[in-house]
């Protein structure tokens, strides 16, 4: 509690108005009344603090109860060569932390589903900004033990460990932690904050967006509509690439709303958002709840303008007799991306590769 907070309740002595009049029969009654008021205020403060502590304890319990830990990282060592086969020079320090976020679209309890959202989040050693790199699901890559295929096939073949190994080999970096959620998590988080206002580069009709037509420009979306918004690709001009830009626009809109004064001053909204964000969350076994809290504290000053989005580099589109339509990897660009991530020099990379 600050000195200013203490001033709200007085220092414990009587105010000038409580001083007894000269010659009064009961000079101490006003002083006792002042003390009683002070005791009531202090008691209320204690009750509020107990309530807040209980609320924080409840949130901690919900997070612990909701989050599942699993073997999401590969046992294979990180690569020693980059996308062009050159030796990787990893700096002794200053290379930050890399998280892989996977949004899975499962079709049932026995179906792993598809990795429809693949985002690499880089937190620099000096976290004044965060870089998020979206990997299009149709990116045509080498998958260890499975030849070449779309990058989301790695998830279908071997879950998160194989997807991590594939991206590590592709970019030439080490992925430190993995987190997976499903599309119901996006829906629940959106409804928890009362919907989001998101910008669409292009529109699509209502049949493809939960009964709501999307117009070019700003759109107000509830959870069901936001879910359809991030899934749509068939009506978009560049298919999966356009969908990736939609997903990044949605993430930014959700971040803005979740960190807005309207949300952070509403305990019920915080509780609903925390529950929705962690209900279907699976993380690697090295990412403990305590570590998650530490990262949250480390990034507490990050604002939406500090979060930078990019798309993994590709040169165009093509066809493969097995994989179908594919996005062709820009090998040179991927090498530059790996160097920028390893050396905490993403600003230099983004100067060359324009963010969506």
TrEMBL record:
Keywords: Membrane, Transmembrane, Transmembrane helix. It holds the Pfam family LytR_cpsA_psr. It comes from the Bacteria. Residues 1-29 are annotated as: Disordered. Residues 114-258 form the Cell envelope-related transcriptional attenuator domain. The keyword Membrane applies. The chain crosses the membrane at residues 37-61. The keyword Heme does not apply. Residues 15-24 have a biased composition (Acidic residues). Belongs to the LytR/CpsA/Psr (LCP) family. This is LCP family protein. It comes from Phycicoccus sonneratiae.
